[in-house]
Amino acid sequence: MRALCWTSGGELAVRQVPDPELRNEHDVIVQVRRSATCGADLPLLAGRVTGLAADDVLGHEFVGDVVEVGPAVRRHRVGDRVVVCASVACGGCWYCRQGLPSCCDNGSTEPAEAEAEWGHPVAGGFGQPRAAGGFAGSHAEYVRVPYADFGAFTVPEAVGDDRALFASDAAPAGWMGAEGGEVRPGDVVAVWGAGAVGQLAARSAWLLGADRVVVVDRHPARLLMARQHSGAETIDLRHTDVAAELRELSGGRGPDVCVEAVGGLAAEHRSLADRFTGRTRMPEAIREAVYACRKGGNVFVLNSGARFVDAFPTGAAVHKGLTVRGARQHGQRYIPMLLDRMARGELRTEHLATHHFPLERAVEGYALFRDRPEECLRAVFTPQEPHSPPGDTAVRVA
Amino acid sequence: MGRVGTVFAVAGALGAAAAGSARAAVTRRRAASNHPSRGAGTRPRAAMTRRRDAGTRLPAGPDDGRPGHWQVVTIDRSPQEVLPTGARPEPLRRLGDAVEVTVRPAPGDRGTELAARPVPGAAWPGLAAHLLGDDPALLVRRTLWQVKQLAEAGEQLRADRPPYERTEPDGTWLPPPDRPAG
């Protein structure tokens, strides 16, 4: 099959790779209809994350059709159109049973190695370095889905592919930002980041009864989209004192809930001195959220790409009595509810798929996604579209 | 993992024969009070005393006569489900007498705490020692995770095989077992 592969040194290539195979009894094989780029992939492209090998297939947010079913699968059959949660979780451990599937104990093939990275093993992921489980990604014609009864969900007929696609990752992440921040009716909610996750966090806050939702970003086109599709007010951080504006919009109290959804950075600009001393970047959006949030309020951090940061404002968080939380999205918990809302028209996501590319042009799609964020919110690949004759097409994107 | 497991099926048998009565005595000493959760209050003090007496940092590792750390996993199933026959579950059984094992119900109705640690002086024979490197604890930990995964998820999760593992000598891909080539 054809797939978008990480090669080395920041290069991507569309290549011929082996078809996926059933490796466990609870697996299914899915023929991919849509697969989206995600900000979390950008550190992989920039070569800032170790553990990828040549020909590893990228991509983790996808929708498609079941074409093969493992012998222990009960909920799916060949022909089902499914959206698959971007994280791999078993459904049988204590964390999954508590509704915390992204903390799954059994989502990795090497839990002992994952312990070294995070202190404890966490759910696996598609298209990630080996420590995340060793599961090939979805920017391909086919993808293997482990624990399919728990992680794959049949898409209602009323929900189109471009809407269902975002139930895989962006919509559950956005929902979790609002729900995890404990948005209540009457709240003022501020969201940092007007990407797909930020916009869906804003929309989720509305659905949970917020009185006012404000989205902060630097890209006018994304802010316009947030106003049009999420009903949010917006702040362009390039021209505005964000903290002052948020105070004004919240009666001087500060937002009740602050959601950080700025995503991964394409490149980390570090000075020579930073490199010499080992200093990492400052979490600017998190700092701003902590300072802006009202006393006793909630700050929810969605950016899983921020591995280490310096200058976290501990004092402000303590003196203001804030609750600061974070998580990777618990998709298996939210996806059925989100698909229902999508089917009812409460949650529309088609506008997030700003660009479509056949798989053969996936490298171009990533370059656009990375280099022109004001124009491209998400590039979506369509592997079932006719493609050019086989042969490697490589473009340097780093 | 099957390869390692096979090795340790042998290792357990060889180890039991070679290590003799000393290790058997250590194994017999395992008791409820020896469980990491119950003995937690005494171990740090003992460790500090040893350090003072020795005057220098003690060497780490299982070969200095001290037992290594307990490796523990909590399995979200009852002890009866984890050990339905009362015997050690696979693949832990394959480690034989090279490890001591304790089992207890987890507090808060969280299932079963399964703990294991290498027996001091256990003879990890040739190939096994090579696979372990300097850290038998890692093999014990991996094995406990496998027991947990089998009990909770019903299977041992396997990674996708990378392309280089599926390449024929002539450079073509091996097709998946259930699909025709091409």
Largest interface (C-beta under 8 Å): A-B, 41 and 31 residues
Secondary-structure content class of chain A: alpha/beta
Number of helices of chain B: 5
What is the number of helical segments of chain A per DSSP (H or I, 4+ residues)? 14
Q: Helix/strand-derived class of chain B?
A: alpha+beta
Q: H/E element string of chain B?
A: HHEHEEHH
Low confidence ranges of chain A: 388-398
Gyration radius from CA atoms of chain B, angstroms:
20 Å
CATH architecture of the largest domain in chain A: Alpha-Beta Complex
The proportion of strand residues of chain A reads: 15-25%
The beta-strand count of chain B equals: 3
Radius of gyration of chain A, rounded?
20 Å
Overall 3D geometry of chain B? extended
Helix content of chain B: 25-40%
CATH superfamily (homologous) name of the largest domain in chain A: Medium-chain alcohol dehydrogenases, catalytic domain
Number of strands of chain A: 19
**Distance separating the two termini of chain B:** 30 Å
Percentage beta strand of chain B: 5-15%
Give the end-to-end Cα distance of chain A, rounded to a whole number of Å.
25 Å
What is the mean pLDDT of chain A? 90
Strand order of the largest sheet of chain B: 1-3-2
Biased composition (Basic and acidic residues) (chain B): 155-169
InterPro entries (chain B): START-like_dom_sf
Protein name (chain B): Integral membrane protein
Organism (chain B): Micromonospora phaseoli
